[in-house]
């Protein structure tokens, strides 16, 4: 996409605005499938939580993707988008037995990550195939909040509890058809991931009727110029070689599965915001924009850095700005960042706004959520209308006092 395309979309649909580039999503999808092209059965389950717009789900379905879901609502979104239950895996954490049973009744592949639920479910439904999420106790991820495979994590069944798992399976006669792990997001060291994979391979040997091994995801994408990223091609070569060797050792063909979210949609996303005010203080110059962490919380929550460009003045001389939002508390997107000279009314573009951006937005300060647009075949298509004040009131019940 060109700067002018984004400026035009900001003018046509208003700001703040999320824009997603379909071509980038497609290229990332095919990059991953190509990296594992030598695996006979390879499956991608897109992590819905990253970006859950139904039009995005439909687009990924057409590419051949399945879905990774973490709530019954995400399962319902997937079914609404046209996915078959067999192409959806459900990996919740801390949900009720009732929700798990409801999803299983839909024919969706369930993934259980604690001993208590495993025993309860196996006792009641031994005929329903189940995947088990293992915690390999391998620290991975770029932030403590997104590292989920370490020993203190709430996710997965500890690898050290494997004897307990095997005892439950023996007692219930339940059918285990998959083994799963997810160590965390923003993985940089391929060898650390491969070490965790070895733990999963060793675990898989204890289950004789597996159909698939799911390695989760967590591939890092670049967030700024010169930023490092996961070498997917190197990773594909190394894991493919090991997986094919394990298949021979295991004695049957298995499906190798991944659950990428950020990798597929992050770089495809652009967040556009208009500059309301340029404010000079004694220590800095603030660029105050028409949005806040109610629409893009990652910088405040994770300390993430989104590259920001002034697409209204892309060739302008760079100056230092602190970009801040309109929320009534500290609401900072960037401190003393070099950005092309900013004037009131300019449109700023945040890169890497496809993953965990709109999906984590809120109505804080009673602000409405922005619209979403899909750039597809050289044209912007509205895929979510901007909220209105009526949407804020929609589910409120006014008490007559």
Structural features, described:
With about 400 residues, this protein is α/β, with parallel strands linked by helices. The protein folds into two domains: about 20-265, Alpha-Beta Barrel (TIM Barrel); about 270-385, Beta Barrel (Lyase, Ornithine Decarboxylase, Chain A, domain 1), CATH 2.40.37. Helices cover about 30% and strands about 25% of the residues. The chain contains twelve helices and 18 strands. It has helices spanning about 5-15, 20-35, 55-65, 70-80, 95-105, 115-125, 160-170, 190-205, 230-250, 260-265, 300, 390-395; strands spanning about 15-20, 40-45, 65-70, 90, 110, 130-135, 155-160, 175-180, 210-215, 255-260, 270-280, 285-290, 310, 320-325, 330-340, 345-350, 370-375, 380-385. The strands form two sheets. Strands 1, 11, 12, 13, 14, 15, 16, 17 and 18 form a nine-stranded mixed β-sheet that branches. α2 (about 20-35) packs across α9 (about 230-250). The termini are far apart. One of its GO terms (molecular function) is pyridoxal phosphate binding. Its cofactor is pyridoxal 5'-phosphate. This is Diaminopimelate decarboxylase. Homodimer.
Query: What's the CATH H-level homologous superfamily of the largest domain?
Result: Alanine racemase
CATH class of the largest domain: Alpha Beta
Radius of gyration: 23 Å
Q: From N to C, what is the helix and strand string? A: HEHEHEHEHEHEEHEHEHEHEEHEEEEEEH
Query: How many strands, which pairing sense, and closed or not: the largest β-sheet?
Result: 9 strands, mixed
Function: Specifically catalyzes the decarboxylation of meso-diaminopimelate (meso-DAP) to L-lysine.
InterPro entries: Ala_racemase/Decarboxylase_C, DAP_deCOOHase_LysA, De-COase2_C, De-COase2_N, De-COase2_pyr-phos_BS, Orn/DAP/Arg_de-COase, PLP-binding_barrel
Binding site for pyridoxal 5'-phosphate: 218, 356
Modified residues (N6-(pyridoxal phosphate)lysine): 49
């Amino acid at each position: 996409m060109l700067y002018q395309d984004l400026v035009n979309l900001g003018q046509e649909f208003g700001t703040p605005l999320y824009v997603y580039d379909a071509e980038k999503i497609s290229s990332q999808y095919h990059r991953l499938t190509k990296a594992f092209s030598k695996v006979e059965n390879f499956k991608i389950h897109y992590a819905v939580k990253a970006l859950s717009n139904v039009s995005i789900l439909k687009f990924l379905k057409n590419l051949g993707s399945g879905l990774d879901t973490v709530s019954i609502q995400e399962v319902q979104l997937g079914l609404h988008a046209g996915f078959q239950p067999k192409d959806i895996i459900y990996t919740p954490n801390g949900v009720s037995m009732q929700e798990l049973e409801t999803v299983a009744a839909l024919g969706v592949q369930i993934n259980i990550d604690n001993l208590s639920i495993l025993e309860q479910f196996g006792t009641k439904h031994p005929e329903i195939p189940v995947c088990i999420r293992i915690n390999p106790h391998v620290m991975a991820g770029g932030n403590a909040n997104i590292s989920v495979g370490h020993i203190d994590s709430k996710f997965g069944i500890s690898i050290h509890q494997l004897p307990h798992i095997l005892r439950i399976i023996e007692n219930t006669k339940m059918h285990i058809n998959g083994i799963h792990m997810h160590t965390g997001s923003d993985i940089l060291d391929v060898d650390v991931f491969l070490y965790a994979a070895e733990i999963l391979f060793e675990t898989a040997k204890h289950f004789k009727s597996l159909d698939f091994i799911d390695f989760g995801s967590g591939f890092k994408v670049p967030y700024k110029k010169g930023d490092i990223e996961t070498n997917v091609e190197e990773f594909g070569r190394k894991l493919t070689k090991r997986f094919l060797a394990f298949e021979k050792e295991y004695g049957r063909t298995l499906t190798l599965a991944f659950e990428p979210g950020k990798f597929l949609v992050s770089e495809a996303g652009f967040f556009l915001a208009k500059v309301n005010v340029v404010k000079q203080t004694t220590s800095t110059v603030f660029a105050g924009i028409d949005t806040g962490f109610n629409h893009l919380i990652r910088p405040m929550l994770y300390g993430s850095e989104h590259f920001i460009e002034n697409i209204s003045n892309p060739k302008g001389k760079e100056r230092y700005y602190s970009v801040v939002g309109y929320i009534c508390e500290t609401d900072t997107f960037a401190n003393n960042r070099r950005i092309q000279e900013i004037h009131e009314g300019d449109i700023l573009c945040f890169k890497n706004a496809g993953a965990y951006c709109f999906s984590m937005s809120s109505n804080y300060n009673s602000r409405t959520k922005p619209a979403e647009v899909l750039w597809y075949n050289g044209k912007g298509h509205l895929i979510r209308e901007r909220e209105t004040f009526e949407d804020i009131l929609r589910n409120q019940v006014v008490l007559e006092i």
